[in-house]
Design goal:
Layout (H helix, E strand, L loop, with lengths): L1 E7 L4 H5 L3 H8 L2 E7 L2 H8 L9 H18 L15 H13 L4 H13 L8 H10 L6 H4 L1 H18 L6 E4 L5 E3 L4 H8 L4
Helix pairs in contact: 3-9, 5-6, 5-9, 6-7
Length: 200
């Protein structure tokens, strides 16, 4: 079975705008998704890339316009000036990793719940109650946020290191494991599917 390593950060509005398209593509083509949340700020620092707040004004304006267009295209609600962005994404990322390790639930639903909480509901995804609610939404024990914390922390660091080694430089980032083909951004999902179909 083919596999896709999906590197992403909950701080990425563009990963949020991908919605459930990756999951639909994976289901259609019998592909396994390896969810790899990582520390995007640490990655930017390692690459010498400015944080979003430090980028040129033109880049900031483009981000705002592009996210607004994507929200209209996808129908996903978006608060451009989300109250708790950026926040500490580590605890929520640990919970996602713990859910992946536990199995038996819907990891994509956990991610979607966390994304919606931050980008549409002005909730802090570093808050234990918000994380617990997201785990419940995916059919997982909400206590995973506590019991899986140490392992989640180790994996979070490892995901970041592996992402750097694999050439990841943003979020969302998709790597097809058997071919090594890389796709950056939610707008690359169409090309990802074409690649899985052997067309490109």
């Amino acid at each position: 079975m083919k596999q896709i390593d999906y590197y992403f950060s909950l701080l990425s509005g563009f990963a949020y705008m991908a919605g459930d398209r990756l999951e639909k593509i994976a289901a259609k083509h019998d592909v396994t998704i390896n969810y790899k949340p990582y520390d995007i700020m640490a990655l930017f620092a390692a690459l010498g890339v400015p944080k979003p707040a430090d980028r040129p004004e033109g880049r900031k304006v483009y981000r705002t316009q592009e996210l607004t267009r994507l929200s209209k295209k996808t129908g996903l609600p978006l608060k451009l000036n989300a109250q708790f962005w950026p926040t500490n994404a580590a605890p929520a990322s640990y919970a996602i990793i713990a859910a992946v390790d536990a199995g038996g639930g819907d990891v994509a639903a956990v991610i979607a719940s966390l994304n919606h909480a931050m980008w549409a509901e002005d909730k802090d995804i570093a808050d234990d109650a918000v994380i617990a609610e997201a785990l419940k939404a995916g059919g997982f024990d909400p206590m995973l946020s506590m019991t899986g914390m140490l392992q989640g922390a180790d994996t979070y660091v490892r995901n970041t290191e592996e992402g750097l080694a694999a050439g990841v430089f943003g979020s969302p980032f998709y790597i097809v494991k058997d071919t090594g083909e890389r796709f950056w951004g939610q707008n690359s999902l169409e090309d990802l599917e074409l690649h899985l179909e052997g067309k490109i």
